[in-house]
């Protein structure tokens, strides 16, 4: 093989020339641009330094907290984790070593967070049956609280949580992450902009097959921890997201029927499925279904307007939501409007900003109370074989 390059120079000549380039450039400024610093232009929304971010305690280190919530802080710009609260000390310390967290509490000494200046906000990621107790304790400790959905087991518990927040002059939010998910926010933008024409109807279907032998599913089938059945856990996504797309409209009545398979041993304490209808003040109906008996996992929303419609399937997942726009005088087209995983960092940063200013969060406790009252009305209707319940 020839030792001559396409330029006609040998490798030895190229290497020799390269060795002299820095000297040549320094000898003649005209041969090179000079590196210069430039001023910061505009407002690039830089992340706050760690010392200025709101400091969070994560309460409950289950699969959702470990897999989604905690990693979401890695992309946040206003928030950082300073403490873990868990009944499993070994797991808490292991996660602490991975994420640089060195402050630990368990459920028996939880109230001591009142004396910890390194905690501003508390994220409750416990089973539903524990939401009210630990939210109220955190608020009484002087901390702002973001609580996972559903807000609590009963509307009475929700009201007590809101009262505790008011008494403590702290913010209480419910972790309705879909309000921060870019594809759902784009769907809302299009609806509000009139791209679908006047809204006419919404459908929502959400469900999966509950495995009683898998710990993350097992507690959902126990009323004391799960609070209720599928509507509490998976159906609430369809309900809350549908209401999100109808800003300013309010529910007037609900009706529902249970769809739990007869004789299924999984559902001795909670319902396994429910079909529901919500009648809005505008005359729009939301028709939905929720189930612990479906396979594969279903997350589907559809918004029908007078001139166009939006279908989202998946609609409310962690990492794979998409939009199909139909009608409106153009061809059907499917697209995504952003990375769904950004919803986790956007949610905690949104709450951090609200807590710092001590103003209501985008998804406040009052929203959680509204949804719990609707779910309770659904169960009351299903208990009466589909009777219409005013709300």
UniProtKB/TrEMBL annotation:
Domain Gfo/Idh/MocA-like oxidoreductase N-terminal as annotated: residue spans: 54-176
Pfam families the record matches: GFO_IDH_MocA, GFO_IDH_MocA_C3
InterPro entries linked: Gfo/Idh/MocA-like_OxRdtase_N, Gfo/Idh/MocA_domain, GFO_IDH_MocA-like_dom, Glc-Fru_OxRdtase_bac, NAD(P)-bd_dom_sf, TAT_signal
Record carries keyword Magnesium: no
Keyword Hydrolase: no
Keywords: Oxidoreductase
Domain of life: Bacteria
GO terms, molecular function: nucleotide binding; oxidoreductase activity
GFO/IDH/MocA-like oxidoreductase domain span: 187-296
Family named by the database record: Belongs to the Gfo/Idh/MocA family.
Name of the protein: Gfo/Idh/MocA family oxidoreductase
């Amino acid at each position: 093989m020839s030792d001559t390059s396409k330029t006609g120079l040998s490798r030895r000549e190229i290497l020799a020339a390269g060795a002299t380039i820095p000297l040549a450039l320094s000898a003649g400024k005209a041969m090179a641009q000079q590196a210069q610093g430039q001023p910061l232009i505009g407002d690039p929304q830089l992340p706050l330094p760690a010392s200025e971010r709101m400091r969070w305690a994560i309460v409950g280190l289950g699969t959702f907290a470990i897999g989604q919530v905690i990693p979401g802080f890695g992309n946040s710009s206003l928030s950082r984790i300073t403490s873990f609260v868990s009944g499993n000390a070994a797991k808490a310390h292991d996660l602490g070593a991975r994420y640089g967290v060195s402050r630990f509490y368990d459920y028996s000494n939880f109230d001591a967070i009142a004396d910890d200046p390194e905690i501003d906000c508390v994220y409750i990621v416990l089973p539903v049956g524990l939401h009210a107790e630990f939210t109220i304790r955190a608020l009484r400790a002087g901390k702002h609280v973001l609580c996972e959905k559903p807000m609590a087991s009963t509307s009475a518990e929700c009201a007590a949580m809101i009262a505790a927040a008011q008494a403590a002059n702290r913010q209480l939010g419910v972790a309705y992450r879909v309000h921060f998910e870019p594809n759902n926010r784009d769907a809302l933008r299009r609806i509000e902009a009139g791209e679908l024409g006047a809204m006419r109807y919404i459908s929502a279907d959400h469900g999966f097959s509950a495995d009683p032998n898998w710990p993350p599913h097992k507690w959902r089938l126990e009323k004391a921890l799960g609070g209720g059945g599928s509507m509490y856990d998976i159906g609430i996504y369809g309900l809350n997201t549908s209401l999100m797309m109808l800003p300013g409209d309010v529910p007037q009545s609900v009706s529902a029927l249970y769809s739990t398979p007869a004789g299924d041993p999984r559902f001795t304490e909670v319902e396994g499925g429910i079909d529901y209808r919500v009648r809005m003040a505008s005359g729009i109906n939301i028709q939905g279904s929720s189930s612990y008996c479906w396979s594969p996992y279903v997350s589907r929303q559809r918004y029908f307007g007078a001139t166009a419609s939006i279908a989202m399937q998946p609609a409310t997942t962690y990492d794979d939501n998409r939009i199909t726009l139909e009608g409106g005088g153009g061809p059907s087209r499917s697209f995504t409007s952003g990375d769904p995983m950004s919803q986790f960092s956007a949610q905690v940063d949104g709450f951090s900003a609200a807590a710092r200013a001590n103003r209501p969060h985008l998804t406040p406790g009052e929203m959680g109370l509204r949804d719990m009252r609707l779910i309770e009305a659904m169960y009351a209707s299903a208990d009466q074989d589909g009777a219409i319940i005013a709300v």
